[in-house]
Amino acid sequence: MRLAASTLLALLLLAPLPAAAMIGGRPAPAEIAAQTAMIVSTRGASCTGVVLTRDLLLTAAHCVQPQADYAVVVFENAGPKLVPVERIARHPRFDPEQFRSRRPTPDLALVKLSAALPASFRPARIARHSAPPLPGDEFVLAGYGVAAEGDEKSAGKLRVVTLPAIGNTIDSTGIIMVRLSPGGGKTAGACTGDSGGPVYRENVVAAVIGWSTGAKGRGCGLVTGATLVAPQLDWIADTARSLGSSTGN
Fold first, then answer.
1. Each residue of 132-142: pLDDT tens digit?
2. Alpha-carbon distance 192 to 221, whole Å?
3. Which of 33, 39, 81, 137 can bridge 133 by disulfide, Cβ–Cβ 3.0-4.6 Å?
4. Helix (H) or strand (E) holding 78
């Protein structure tokens, strides 16, 4: 893992400085930044994660599904530092073929870090209420992804966007996904690198970003899909304990 971490850091230092993130977004407030982290991998991809404890993140399962070494980036005054991921636990019902089959599954994973994040990070509050959102309910999404689709140089800075719910997608086990969209011909939402990021409702993480679609064949800015976390609280708590952490939620 030391070699992998060194490789990741070298790739990060060679990349241009981050500019922005989240289609149609704005800079994230400090309280959300403290609860959110950027995940990178040796396959060159990045995602976002929700801080459950200083050594445990909740993210999207598809972010950590391919074989690779993963780490969390900590941005410090002296430069970026990596905290390697030690263990990964994907939700047992996650199906990586869901994007092709269009059949939603719980796109969630927990990642255990090899060391604690700095004290500037703090645990996010996780929703316990599992009733499905109603159309028009507003949510705040956060992510480190690109601000302009296809422009990888625009990724790396945490930004947020507020979107209303437009409906829910249900599988055979109950509510899984909430769909969010700006509507009215506007373009806003998650994009590449935002997967795994928190979706807040009234300062509580209600869901985790999983996918996005765009207009006219594009992939971002039209609809964002996210996995609701309240129906998965038992899995989150049990898996956290198996990884040696207690979420406190």
1. 899 999 999 99
2. 11
3. 137
4. none
